[in-house]
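Module 6 notes. Inverse folding takes a fixed backbone as the condition and produces residue identities as the prediction. Think of it as a translation problem where the source language is geometry and the target language is the twenty amino acids. Below is one complete input and output pair. Work through it position by position during the lab.
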């Protein structure tokens, strides 16, 4: 199985050293997934895509989700030390973008995708919009997150916490977004791709507050999931739910 060493800086920021050559998850072929039914939401990321079988499987699953009218959510989750070079990473990730309904990027990942030293949300949404993406979620660490979608430009601040270990914060944040989308959607249950539009400004703001809460809590203890709260421990009313 893959082995990953996480290095922590004094402010809780982390760096990764991966040892996962020919790991089992990177070798799964598209045919390995054919017997499995798809959930209403397919969550995908880029970490299997540096490897030929894993890349083909990721794209095949996303294509199947589109055919079956599932909602496709993509977390860029860039780890450049998994890739042979930056150009290959950017080109391969852009292959997946047209299959997505909603994409999550960190500030650094947005700069990478736009090949720029600073984030220009308008440029990013225009770039992804050319590939058919309608909703973009940008995370700014301690500065919170923002959503760009049809007629929507929303920003929500992060909670003020003492960061111990930021490992897993992005995953916790994205779990909150997908929970909000699947819970607050008013569209028909059999039309998950319409859920994003049905949230409206109020639903998206509650979703971003939940996501920021989970991402912030994840930073308060060592480990990727140690401090992420269970559903019964989330302060729902404080978050406007």
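Target side of the pair, the amino acids:
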């Amino acid at each position: 199985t893959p082995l990953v060493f996480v290095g922590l800086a004094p402010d809780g920021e982390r760096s990764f050293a991966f040892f996962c050559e020919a790991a089992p998850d990177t070798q799964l072929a598209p045919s390995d997934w054919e017997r499995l039914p798809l959930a209403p939401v397919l969550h995908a990321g880029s970490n299997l895509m540096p490897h030929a079988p894993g890349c083909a499987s990721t794209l095949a699953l996303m294509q199947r989700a589109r055919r079956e009218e599932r909602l496709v959510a993509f977390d860029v989750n860039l780890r450049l030390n998994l890739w042979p070079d930056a150009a290959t990473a950017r080109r391969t990730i852009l292959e997946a973008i047209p299959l997505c309904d909603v994409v999550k990027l960190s500030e650094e990942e947005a700069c990478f995708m736009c090949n720029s030293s600073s984030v220009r949300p308008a440029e990013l949404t225009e770039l992804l919009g050319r590939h058919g993406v309608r909703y973009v979620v940008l995370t700014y660490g301690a500065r919170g997150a923002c959503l760009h979608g049809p007629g929507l430009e929303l920003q929500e601040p992060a909670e003020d916490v003492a960061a111990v270990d930021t490992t897993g914060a992005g995953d916790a944040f994205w779990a909150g977004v997908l929970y909000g989308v699947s819970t607050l959607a008013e569209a028909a249950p059999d039309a998950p791709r319409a859920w994003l539009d049905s949230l409206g400004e109020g639903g998206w703001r509650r979703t971003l507050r939940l996501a920021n809460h989970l991402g912030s809590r994840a930073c308060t203890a060592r480990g990727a999931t140690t401090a992420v709260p269970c559903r019964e421990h989330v302060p729902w009313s404080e978050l406007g739910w």
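Reference fact for the lab report: The chain has seven helices and eight strands.
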